[in-house]
Amino acid sequence: MGNEQPEIQLQGLHYLTGDPIRITIHQGRIDSIAPLNNLEVEQQQLPWVGPGFVDLQINGYAGLDFNSLPITPHTTSRMTRALWKEGVTRFFPTVITNSEEAIKEAVAAIAQECEEDPVAGDAVAGIHLEGPFISPEDGARGAHSRLYVRPPDWTLFQRWQESARGRIKIVTVSPEWAEAEDFIRRCTDAGVLVSIGHTAAAPDQIARAVAAGASMSTHFGNGAHPVLPRHPNYLWEQLAAEQLWTSVIADGFHLPDAVLKVVMKVKGEKALLVSDAVMFSGMQAGTYESHIGGKVVLTPEGRLHLAEQPQLLAGSVQMLLKGVSHLVRRGLCSLGEAWEMASIRPARRLSLPVSSGLQPGAPADVLLLDWRDGEVAEPRIAGVYKNGVSVFP
Ligand SMILES: [Zn+2]
């Protein structure tokens, strides 16, 4: 069977500069990028064009879930394709705190699908294991089940990694455990990114975790105590640690704009967006039964919280595009910067080939986005190309 793909040409406004460009795609890669002349531009309303979104933390979407066991067959394959319409072209299925057997089953199922379905295998850039080596404390633990929270255990992690066929690339850990430093060092040596999250760690424990190789903060400012000593505390310590990249949920519910602004100012190119979307994303408002802490409520505004404790969020139902639009609407950054926070920055942190973005030679994971002042109020995904193939609409 021939694999020769026809050459594709896309026209749009460069997501960083706003300049009209023509992108030529050949054999799944960006071949060239050239400016459009004025005559060509006037003939049409051009969409924005930029790199596909990369989501480092996604638990589920539209009823599909990586954490409800037994995992429904084809969850990873279906998720891969469902996420195209959200502009997500690479992602990290996220498996959260659970029993040893449950985590094993979840990561094994994802890995198996990645091997059986090359499309999923390409889109899934790795598995994110969020827990169970996190804080047992209320608030810090967030919606994770206390029952299964445990100290970091390298032998146990290796068993999961074996079940995942080496696909666990990110692990979220709290450095408050005595075992954390050694665990972080071993993960880092093995090429697994350690992210600090769901933590009640003392500032010196954060500092030691960073020295041991921890290099990111998981949804900074969430999975945290409602009340903290003003200083010192684990938030300041992570903000001040220059080695730490910082992921934030910018859906308008998880963090006030002031926190987003400070994170972006302090972290610069190391600030990035995650969705942390759960299976209720894309579903109707209502009360649902969740495997994490019983009933959850999805409000008509799109906020998901624990039914028993409305002040505690139970993950997000907004995808990366919403985060991009929130940052831009609130005047926190330009479209170009927000777009990079949702695409090449996460890709760069994980050293993915798509981190080069719109450059000749890069994999052609490309989005077209409709968003014009006064005309198109909410940004809308107008087209998605995955390795140079049109996959949406
Ligand atoms: Zn979390």
Automatic annotation (TrEMBL):
Residues 49-383 form the Amidohydrolase-related domain. SUPFAM superfamilies: Metallo-dependent hydrolases. It comes from the Bacteria. InterPro entries: Amidohydro-rel, GlcNAc_6-P_deAcase, Metal_Hydrolase. Keywords: Carbohydrate metabolism, Hydrolase, Metal-binding. GO terms for molecular function: N-acetylglucosamine-6-phosphate deacetylase activity. Its EC number is 3.5.1.25. Belongs to the metallo-dependent hydrolases superfamily. NagA family. This is N-acetylglucosamine-6-phosphate deacetylase. It comes from Paenibacillus aceris. The lineage of its organism: Bacteria, Bacillati, Bacillota, Bacilli, Bacillales.
